[in-house]
Amino acid sequence: MKALIAAGGRATRLRPITWTINKHLIPLAGRPMLAHVIEKIVEAGITDIYVNVNPGEGESMRAALGDGSAFGAKLTYLEQQGGAKGVAHVVANAEAQLKGERFLFFLGDNIILGSIKRFVERFEAEKLDCMLAFSRVKDPQRFGVPEFDAAGKLVRVVEKPANPPSPFAVTGIYLYDTRFFDAFRTIAPSARGEYEISDVNSWYVGNGTVGFEEITGWWKDTGTPDALLEGNALVMDDLPRAAFTSEGTVSLEAQVQGLVKIGKGSVIGEGALIRGPVVIGEDCRLENCYVGPYTSIGDRTTIRHAEVEHSIIFPGVALTAQKRIVNSIVGANATVADVRDSVPRTGHQMIVGENSVLEI
């Protein structure tokens, strides 16, 4: 089998972070989001992987993820043609690569706790035409939603319904047989002007054998800041204990508790309290500070005097404010300083990008 990962889009709900970085490269547990997705696919036995990216982003994706050899896979980057016309159109963009193939389609901003191997194995063992994964959610109107009849039989999939027919969302993990492109040619753009993957799924319900399973573990669509932070926590929970290694230097006057990964060249200095799970990148310096659970800290970050918990800190950040920072995302090379360090002390000095959120 082959696989296609959707890694385009503009991620407007995550701005200003996504003004300068593709959403799928945002670090979760210290690594690009897409790296975790690729590992899930390879673990399921699929190593020939195509990555759909925005026009002009092929090289930046390749620079971040390479050719796939680090994952034991082959990665081929496909730039989206014809504009953003919906999820189904992403697959249509790869017709030359996938026509005649049975394949896995994975939305790259979906985080799942556990393996997808059982989905792939069932799809192959039962020779299904389509395989879908469902998850019970509190806001199904944001997703494609399966509709069942009185006997529990799947009858169709509805995209973002105002009145959801079930409490389930179709997650971004799909398996299709060789007829996907035939199905695609039968659908028309929706009222949103997009080719909806739900319409393709409904076609399969009426023209083939569709299997489905509920994801009983955690699944997260990382489309909002809160969901992104939760995805970061899920990835940390999914890491093996062996991943939490210390390759840095820890002062005798520091405390490191629980599962903590410390990168090469990083120094945990006097007065630092690190309480895991925490992932700290390379060449960081932390002293007289507190870093609490579910915090991911990028390379070359300095933290002094601050307290930070349940947050994603990008590389090159300086946190020196004597404040408690929680549930936050701090972009690359940002500075969060104490007002007492500025002169004159007449107020709060800020450079705030579009769509930023500040609490002061």
TrEMBL record:
InterPro entries: G1P_thy_trans_l, NTP_transferase_dom, Nucleotide-diphossugar_trans. Residues 2-235 form the Nucleotidyl transferase domain. GO terms for molecular function: transferase activity. The lineage of its organism: Bacteria, Candidatus Uhriibacteriota. This is Glucose-1-phosphate thymidylyltransferase. Keywords: Transferase. It comes from the Bacteria. Pfam families: NTP_transferase. Coiled coil: none annotated. NCBIfam families: rmlA_long.
